[in-house]
Design a protein that fits this description.
alpha+beta, Aminopeptidase, eight-stranded mixed β-sheet, 14 helices, transferase activity, GNAT family N-acetyltransferase, transferase, FemAB-like, Acyl_CoA_acyltransferase
Length: 374
């Protein structure tokens, strides 16, 4: 018999059973334990599980929050919506129950390894139904699937059957690493980009330190993080210090923080997840006053590319921001979609109109180019 449940802690689900649904994932059970312990403000965690008898057959993380409809809007559109929010506080905010995670790029919904692919769509439908019931219990009308891979037909078919609307979300940037050296990578880029990066490499660079414990520099890390966040056009969550320390502690050898120093001053850091197959750039923050002088973003980029080459890591996953630079740096892009439905038919109809104006590709030409590539 198939049953579905929603839990408030991932500890209610056995570690091995959860990880069996996500073979090889870096954002696995341990990652979500660290996220849960970090207690990120304004988010309530939920974990959806489908059982066949007593056997776990499908799972997905989920969360509850108050969502601003202009979260993925930037540029002129963002300035307009901020003015609207000042004139009419709360007009752009809705209670949201979403399958996925605010600290993962794609919707992590997995099925157990013994489940045939032919059953996956039916199990995703069970997860959607469980989410709807759970959202109703919390009195939340808006249900969404955050950042489902665009090429995942099972998610698309399941959401369509449930009457969900869809719109493009922020694409994921990926850099395959088939290169034998950094110089070979540079040779794969356009002439002007290649020339620019080689010029940057000839200039003096910061000292690079790889760390798995950052307790002694945590105040400086948070200063850089807060400053970087304030400059960002797109932001969804605000990470506490416990997120960074917790990830490093919980994931052990699969997480590292790369520090960039000028003399005795910390000028940038990069939180990374990694295994033998991939390197995931989770967060990069830098001192804007030093960034141009030391080319901190591009130094960090080439440091990660070089690490992948030296350790035979085939894929560099590099986030959902900075699309103009990533187009120049040779990235490929995976499309993501948001599916959503409000149980109130009037609000659901209104969202059909609103989504035309809040599509992320409407306000950022580079993002539009990345989305079109997918």
């Amino acid at each position: 018999m198939i049953t579905a449940q929603a839990f408030s802690t991932i500890g209610a689900i056995e570690r091995s059973a959860w990880n069996d649904c996500f073979p090889g994932a870096l954002e696995d059970w341990d990652y979500y334990v660290a996220v849960e312990k970090a207690a990120i403000d304004d988010f309530q965690w939920r974990y959806l599980a489908v059982f066949e008898g007593e056997t776990l057959v499908a799972v997905a993380p989920a969360f509850i929050t108050h969502y601003r409809l202009d979260t993925t809007v930037s540029g002129i559109g963002k300035r307009f919506t901020e003015r609207l929010e000042r004139l009419w506080p709360g007009v752009l905010q809705l209670g949201l129950y979403a399958i996925g995670s605010p600290v993962a790029e794609q919707c992590n919904a997995g099925t157990a390894s013994h489940i045939p692919e032919s059953r996956r769509q039916a199990l995703l439908e069970q997860l959607l139904q469980a989410a709807r019931r759970d959202a109703d219990d919390f009195g939340i009308g808006l249900l969404a699937v955050k950042d489902a891979p665009t090429n995942d037909e099972h998610w698309a078919n399941s959401c369509q059957a449930a009457g969900f609307q869809s719109m493009p979300s922020l694409p994921s940037a990926l850099l395959p690493i088939p290169f034998g050296s950094v110089d070979a990578y540079l040779g794969s880029l356009g002439k002007s980009t290649r020339k620019d990066l080689r010029r940057k490499l000839r200039a003096p660079g910061p000292r690079v330190e790889w760390r798995r414990n950052i307790d002694d520099v945590l105040p400086e890390i948070m200063r850089l993080y807060e400053a970087t966040l304030e400059r960002a056009d797109l932001q969804f969550e605000r990470l506490p210090a416990g997120y960074f320390t917790g990830i490093l502690e919980q994931l052990g050898e699969r997480a590292v923080c790369v520090l960039y120093w000028v003399d005795e001053q910390l000028v940038a850091f990069n939180l990374i997840l990694l295994n033998q197959d991939r390197l995931i750039d989770k967060f990069f923050a830098h001192d804007l006053a030093r960034s141009r002088e030391y080319n901190l973003y591009f130094r960090s980029w080439l440091t990660n590319v070089d690490y992948c080459i030296q350790h035979n890591i085939a894929l560099y996953e590099c986030g959902q921001a900075g699309y103009a630079s990533k187009l120049r740096l040779g990235c490929k892009f995976e499309g993501n979609s948001v599916f959503f439905r409000h149980r109130n038919w009037l609000l659901n109809t209104l969202l059909k109109v609103v989504k035309v104006f809040i599509r992320p590709d409407r306000s950022d030409p580079a993002m539009a180019a990345a989305i079109s590539e997918t």
